[in-house]
Amino acid sequence: MNKTQVIGASVLAGAAAAFALRTRKTIPKGAAAVKPFNIKKYLGRWYEIARMDYFWERHISDVTATYSLKDDGSIKVDNRGYDYKTKEWKESIGKAKFVDKKDEAKLKVSFFGPFYAGYNVIAIDPEYKYALVVGEKLDYMWLLSREKSIPDQVKSHYLRLAEGIGYKTNMLVWTAHNKD
User: Fold this and answer.
1) Which CATH number does 27-174 carry?
2) What is the pTM of this model?
3) β-strand partners of 144
4) Residue 105, SS3?
5) In a 3-state reduction of DSSP, which class is residue 150?
6) First and final CA of the chain: distance in angstroms?
7) Cα distances (angstroms) measured from residue 103 to each of 5, 70, 71, 77
8) Could you read off the pLDDT of 80-133 as tens digits, one per residue?
């Protein structure tokens, strides 16, 4: 190999290593993923109760996320919501994988090929009816429920937990559920 090839290979190896490290850091400082976690109990439909706003979900109500196990062991993620500006249903299909152990709710999710983002369940009730999910940064957070609402005491508990990590819960968008 000549000097240019060695430098090119080194840069490429460094970029690959940085990408690999980046995809493993999926949880904000101060947060801990639920452990033990039972993915089979987590599968199925969840209603989004609240979220940190970001452009993929602007003007979207009636948001659900449905999780199912794929043959290869990954998890199919089917996000659906109603765009009340365009009056159309939107759907986005992705996949999730465990970052480390399958009994720890630290996952990475992708809707765009090889690009993954953190998806971490940091609180869940024993019956798997209500969940607090965070991304890898303080920009992403979701309150989820198996029903279109969440009890006030669960909501308050999850909001306090999120605030303790650094989330600005006053910035949450509360998701309306008016469609079937």
Assistant:
1) 2.40.128.20
2) 0.85
3) 48, 131
4) coil
5) coil
6) 62
7) 43, 17, 18, 18
8) 999 999 999 999 999 999 999 999 999 999 998 889 999 999 999 999 999 999
